Protein 1
Amino acid sequence: MLKCKDLVALSSDLLDGELTLKQRIAVRMHLAMCVHCRRFIRQLRVSQRVIRQLPDQQAPELETLLRAMQAQQQRASEPDQSDSSK
Amino acid sequence: MPNEQDLIQRLLKGEQAAYRELVQQYQGAMRAVAIAIVGTASADEVVQDSWLAVVRNLKGFAGRASLKTWLLTITANTAKSRLRKQRREVLLDDITGPHGTIDDARFAADGHWAQAPSLWHTDSPEALLNEQALRDCLEHTLATLSELQRSVLMLRERQALELPDICNLLDISHSNVRVLLHRARLSVFATLEHFEETGEC
């Protein structure tokens, strides 16, 4: 029988669909009987969604980056002059 | 993807709005890859170099991979060439966040909960994230995870990459990705649980 501690060890694999069939059945049976583990998994999924929705940290200097990209793009579209100068 | 094709065409025409869109959409994922490989200190530089490489090579993008995969591969390659073999062997670090994790101390000798998870006041991520103090607390937890743990978590949860893609980009084994992800998730869980119990970070 799966213990609560084993279930926690398998919890991330459960979220990612990485469990084997045998593990999946054992997890399902355990969850059917254990209210604490049901709560744990439910709240683990909540914390997964919290991370997904956590606002992004400010991207560093977007405008500077875009200017550098534009300059690179202009260089790329100009004919290569390094040979003709020889 | 039709939208992707459209975006690429606009990029090839040199449309600045398209570049802005591209950067805003993929910067976060590229940063997570860069941090995982070179660390936070050099990550922004790697991302910038990667974007310039993207601009240089856009014409050669054949569309065999998705745009996202292509961008992240360029980022990983840029980061790796900077690293020059001094690969940090910290893969299976056991760094946990400031509020610990769900470890052996939570279980009785028979493997059942000794201290069961407490019930949170809501299951709604939106409601939880309403509190600025909790958002700050989560940022703090993420910042204290190892760079690799944090990156794997970000790539999986926020960028929705599949585990094999994360393995390929970061050159780590499937089982290591699973371990890193598990530890990071438990640290985040412990922070939320702690905040729900005490109302503070």
Note: Residues 1-54 of chain A form one domain.
Protein 2
Amino acid sequence: MSLPAALRRRTEAGLLVLVGLVVGFAYALASLGSSASLPADVVPFLGVVLGLFVAAHVAVRRLAPRADPLLVPLAVLLNGLGYVFIARLDEELAGQQAAWTGVGVAAFVATLAVVRRVRVLERLRYTVGLVGVLLLLAPLAPGAGPAINGSKIWVRIGPVGFQPGEFAKLALAVFIAAYLVERRELLATAVRRIGPVRLPEPRHLAPLLVAWLFALVVMMFERDLGSALLFFVLFLTVTWVATGRAAYLVMGTGLFAAGALLAWRLFSHVQVRVDMWLDPWQDPTGRGYQIVQSAYALAWGGVGGTGLGLGIDGRIPYQETDFIFAIVGEELGLVGATAVVAAFVLLVGRGLHAASRIEDPFAKLLACGLTTLLGVQAFLIMGGVTRLLPLTGVTLPFVSYGGSSLVSNWVLVALLVRVSDQGATEPVAEASAQQVPATAGGPR
Amino acid sequence: MNGRIRRLGAALLVCYLALFGWLNRVMVLDAAQLNARPDNRRAVERDFNRPRGDVVSADGVLLAHSEEVEGRFRYQRTYPTGDLFAHVVGSYAFSFGADGVERTYGDDLAGRSADFQLRGFADPFSEEADVGTVALTLRADVQRVARDALGAREGSVVALDPRTGGILAMWSFPSYDPNPTSANDTLVAGAFREALDANPDKPRLARTYRERFFPGSTFKVVTAAAGLDAGRVDEAAPAYPSARSYTPPLTTKAIANFGGSTCGGTLAAILAVSCNSAFAQMGAETIGPDGMIAEAEDFGFGETPPIDLPQAVSSSFPADFGRRLSDGPEGSAGVFENTPGLAQAAIGQGDVSATPLQMALVAAAVANGGAIMAPHVLDEVRDHRGERVRGHADEVWRTATSPETAATLRRAMVGVVTDGTARAMAVDGWEVGAKTGTAQLGTVPPRSHAWIIAFAGPPGGVPEVAVAVVVEGQEGASEQTGGRVAAPIARAVVEAVRRAG
């Protein structure tokens, strides 16, 4: 059923050319719209961008020739479109974002080069897990970095600040996948009956509680609602996929509700988020300003948008990062916003497809976890910006300005590419999967 | 596990579908409502980056114009005549939105009204921005005369053409310069606006159509019309007794004539000297509540005049004077619970209040054979080539009274100028009718609003101009006050209209 490797790569190359044209045109239009002249740097810009994309494509050809042909073009599309909007909003940030794109693509290539087999990560699970926890808690170390807008999520090393949480999520996804591969039989089968309800053994609930506590720590001390939520959803989803026990979902949801209620009771900033979600117009020039202006930007965009570079920017705080989707909506309209949503749907679809194709349970769970991270994060911030959900400050993957986010998402896509390549390289008969538990030490 | 992966995919897909549905709601279904929210400045921001048409007076003076500027927006709205037309043209400010003509004809000025959109379809490749020029019926020369004549006294002047309802001048003091409050720099605009709003004299208030005053004796014209229309009064009868005062039934409080004078007689005589005792008795006994209430309504009291300016207010006359208590003297309309109040209302005191615009319309009704034309400031909308796109369709707002009654009142009001309290209104070669008023404010020392309403034009024809002038809070409370203070202002305006031809 699967396409031969050469055809996959030709498809990818073709899609990349298409994406390159789209991004190049968008860049030229945005410049025309905001300054009524073609930018002098349109050619060098396109050269650099296309060069990076070609590098990514060549790396995939060499290092993962059977990988899914849609993953890289989709990432490139979102990355390129995000760059166009950042360049249109703030030239200085655009230079930095271009540099981060370079670093991101380099990280993508490096990840493919280093992680030749997904199993490498499984062996390093405890190291990776420890690194993840350290990264998660690093901003809390004294003198690590400043608290910005109340969130303590930054670490400053020399002149470069970064958000270790973005990388911690990847490390934790690796750890959780590996941990569950080891324990999933136990977690799935060991049950205690309480009346009609079958609950997992209390000691197997410990990991869930630990994850929950971690999320609470992140939320309370780093004041990073979005990351806490993502981390918890990641853990819950992967646990459920691994064990198939709905009880984990039910208890997880219960724990989440308890945590959310606790946060709402304890923290004024959480209350503000909820209040402004319910009715931002109770304080349209103060606490609700961002949400109100975002709604106005989206409404102003309408179906077709104002056109690139023709929107009225500068009204929404954090328009380059958390709220970039509102600017996309204003200038590209419902059509463009839907295209971005569709790109994420496709990315999620390809990620889960890779997960379902591969036999190795660790790789399967890893791909599930990574895809969930990407999909849920994009959904959280697009939903927050449009007031479908309360606002949780996370970046829109690939599109928002921000080095840590961009680089970590390129690594994430590299891992998905690796999983999809491996899944296509080692087609194992469906039947052999059933033999695994038997040989793994079932009672004879 | 693949089954669960599919379910995970389905769950995420549901999330994204919800997001897509929600996007449709925010960006399409609710878009118009969100765009129209008053705190949403996007439409205004767009408009400040586009040209906007001029506002010009009937005599070709530029009243509002958009200049191309450097800075936050491409255009800055300017008002070359400063405070002269602030209450009519209004202002168009990024921080505070639009008022006056800038608001009512904002779509024409922006080239966004239906007329311009249709033209846009017809000529889609036109390079020139097709925005409308709004030409007003007001004349800058007449407006200047009104301003200079009123001077630094709080008050209002309204002059209009009774034949069409077109406003010729509409000035009230104090006014304000709309240029600084319309500055694109919101800090500058905000500071000026705050200072204006803190001023106790309320310079931003358009007193001519947004403020009500006791009309005083000018209201006697409406009372006289009520008597004539009810068939209970004509030029020969009744002859009201010569008296110093009139005491209505149910009270001991007498309504005195001005300066303790004695007056009485038939309609022309009592209107000429503005006889309080006679008109109070006419309203309270000859006409009665029903006739008075109906006539005030016919003249437009209780309803906002349909002028093409925002936030005009209605004038008011009491809607009820209580139950009928007895028949009263032979031939009278009867005694009602609040007949004393009716007697006060009949001379424009008590619970009667009117805008200067409304009182100008009373004079216009008499001048135009009883029909009040809908007052308006728009003459026509022109395109960028100066061609007429749309004119104002003149229409009758109220039929205040019959042509016969109007003719009788006209003779009586001309008599006020030739033989009565408004001699100062006489204009050589023109037929002028007027009614003065002194609305007592009941303060110590006595103060009053000095009023005059008048019409004027070549003899025999339909008068070309109707005027109302009120000068607020003048010292004294003599009936001479209206004639002395307000009449010269009204005459200057009438003469300016006559010069303008």
Note: Chain A touches chain B at residues 237, 240-242, 244, 284-285, 292, 295-303, 312, 329, 333-334, 337-338, 341, 344-345, 348-349, 352, 355-356, 361, 364-365, 368, 372, 375-376, 379, 382-383, 386-388 (CB under 8 Å).
